[in-house]
Amino acid sequence: MSDWLSEKPWLSSYAPDVPHLIDEPDGSLVDMVFRSVHRYDQATALEFFGRTTSYRELGRQIDHAAEGLRRLGVQKGDRVAIILPNCPQHVVAFYAVLRLGAIVIEHNPLYTARELRHQFEDHNARVVIAWQQVVDTLATFPSDLALDAVISVDITTEMPQSQRLALKLPIKKAREARAKLGTAPTTKSHIAWDRLLSKGSLKRKHPKPAVDDLAVLQYTSGTTGRPKGAMLTHRNLYSNAMQGRAWVPGLTEGGEVFYAVLPMFHAYGLTLCLTFAMSIGARLVLLPTFTTDLVLEAAKKNPPTFLPAVPPIYDQLARTAEHRGIDLSSVRFAISGAMSLPVQTVERWESVTGGLLVEGYGMTETSPVALGNPIGPSRRPGTVGVPFPSTEIRVVDPADPSVDRPQGEEGELLLRGPQVFQGYWNRPDETAETLLADGWLRTGDIVHVSDDGFVTIVDRVKELIVTGGFNVSPSEVEEVLMQHPDVVKVAVVGLPRASGGEDVSAAVVLKPGAVLDTGGLRDFARRTLVSYKVPKRIVQVEELPTSLIGKVLRRKVREDLISAGKRSKASRDS
């Protein structure tokens, strides 16, 4: 490790009262949440469309759900899949699985059957807790993926009674709302969530998980290739919650209001909402999907104080709140991640709210947060900040990570800390490529580190596309588009958008005589891929640039498409 980084120059930029190191977690995530259950028993833990659940009731439901799962045969070390949007049942299910010492596997409920099947083939879970809208999809799985039990969740049962009644009205608006919140499955081979909770409380003698037990398999595209399960222990996730708590001086334990606009099946939403918020006894306002109307309507009744999100969300909320005259001054802290944060977005948000908006950095493999801008005047917009407490960094030669780069030179970012994962599920070779023997994690990101330790992302060694906070593997999208009869060759890349992040974009070579039908190609892709993976831009090219051995040069494709876009804009402007 370079001498200048071993001296940790960033520590002097920490906000006042932020420790350089965190304590070791003294238990599991189950111990963490039940500490809040006992400490804040009468306080509100969850809010869903105005209906609230106290911490005491949350603890009771976790015990009852755990007992229901135990009776279904779930044991320590078993894998249980959760396929839910943000809702109270998601929080209960997450901790109920962990309470048994079992392993949570989070899934995007909007995934297609093919995408879900790929992940189930990898982790082989036999018990699933799923949004009722997904249950029929699970019934299409082949016999070799036969499930022992599917628990179906109707998220509307946790809404206030008045809203449940309104959903039953025979009008178009009510029908559309019902469809968004989930339609009842047609297959009968499932167990209702309420029935799962009806089996009584978990036996007190049932052992809790240990701090180094595996807690979550979080699927990610990692640094290369198709999605794989990142193995995160209780220690990894609890440490990251503790690091987050340490990073934000001025938080009031038992008094904050977090808004869960980030999906909790995503690593970012999981840590900021499912673990961090619960660890400090916060009120977690759950939104099953993000719309500005939902957030701003909720803010009128129960204003948020802490809002983790991604740049486009901050932009939309600030613009709309300002236009409608809605007060967002309650939001003291906002932490942005998953994509670059434009300085203009920071300025707009802070002018509307009066609070702070800072950018952080992480990846699923770091539970996920590893770097952050200080919550205070030393923050530096345009950078991803400095290492979290108990976190170390190195800057190395991407071709040989054992060679450190001199001070001021760009190189690949390496990370080490208690939040770094244990490897990829059933993928020892890829684990060895990413997780070095001495605990250093290769991020695949090329960075520049200032003399005082602030990190700026310059480029990526990996070719993943980051869109809307999600990672998209180009090879997965290419594989789907190549199945279209008109496509001869394809290269998928990410093209930058002004608001931050990237658009999934495809350069295609068509067979002779074929005419480009961008709408048709998108519809074709949409049959197999979740919407955020479907290319936003599709461009026909005569040929794709390749290396001497015939490998398509995605970076060159990306450069060519960016240049073509600039030429097109210049031509229109003239």
Automatic annotation (TrEMBL):
Lineage, highest ranks first:
Bacteria, Bacillati, Actinomycetota, Actinomycetes, Micrococcales
* Leader peptide range in chain numbering: none
- List the InterPro entries hit by this protein, alphabetically: AMP-bd_C (IPR025110), AMP-bd_C_sf (IPR045851), AMP-binding_CS (IPR020845), AMP-dep_synth/lig_dom (IPR000873), ANL_N_sf (IPR042099), ATP-dep_AMP-bd_enzyme (IPR050237)
Q: Which PROSITE patterns match?
A: AMP_BINDING (PS00455)
Q: Which CDD domains match?
A: FC-FACS_FadD_like (cd05936)
Membership in a protein family: Belongs to the ATP-dependent AMP-binding enzyme family.
Database matches in SUPFAM superfamilies: Acetyl-CoA synthetase-like
Query: In this protein, which residues make up the domain named AMP-dependent synthetase/ligase?
Result: 35-425
Query: Which residue numbers delimit the AMP-binding enzyme C-terminal domain?
Result: 476-551
Protein known as? Long-chain acyl-CoA synthetase
GO: which molecular function terms? ligase activity, forming carbon-sulfur bonds
Its domain of life? Bacteria
